[in-house]
Amino acid sequence: MRALKRYDRRGFTLVELMIVVAIIGVLAALAIFGVRRYLASAKSSEAKNTVGAISRGAVAAFERETAPSAILAAGETSDPTTRSLCASANAVPDFVPAGNKYQPSAAAGADFEVGSETEGWPCLRFAVSQPIYFQYHYLLNERVPNQTDAPAAAGDAYFEAGAVGNLDADTAPAVYSVFTRLGSVTNATGQITVATQVHVEREYE
Q: Which long-range CB contacts under 8 A does 92-96 form with residues at least 24 apart?
């Protein structure tokens, strides 16, 4: 009976405890990695969605036909309607946020309110009112900066919508994540085509 009672009171050995601690440590490390990757993916989703919205705005702006306002004399005809891409917009913000968010200003002449009916963000009819992790671009016949492996532009005229970020806030030198989408116009057909998906470089940087 005494032997059985001693056996019932036996605790865990040091080896067993070390194995349990090791398993918990591995699971914790995997969980931390998974959470970090999930948070980074959520942030990069902002860039992909916004770049897609900017490119859709560029297509919609091109498809709007415009005609000059004119007073016509009897027997005269107006000039034909035209279609054209919006001129380049200013980058918003004018710096790349380093792992934090930037709240765009809705004041006249600031951030997404800079431009006109033929230029910039008002031409695209695009604005963001919520805080953003990325610097956003819309460029006519120019390329978004910090790209290293961008697809070639084609057509007689093209635009590029893009987002540049620094999610991990690294410095000296900073490595940027870049999301871009190209669109091009062929003058012969008057058609606009857009890349099938957003081009991504260094998604989690």
A: 92/121, 92/128, 92/135, 92/136, 93/135, 94/135, 95/135, 96/134, 96/135, 96/164, 96/165, 96/166, 96/174, 96/176
Q: Distance (Å, rounded) from C-alpha 84 to C-alpha 72?
A: 24
pLDDT band at 190 (very low <50, low <70, confident <90, very high): confident
Domain count, the chain: 1
Does 189 fall in a domain? yes
Q: What single-letter DSSP state applies at residue 113?
A: G
CB 182 within 8 A of CB 158: yes
pLDDT of 5 > 80? The answer is no
| Residue 121 belongs to domain spanning | 33-64+83-201
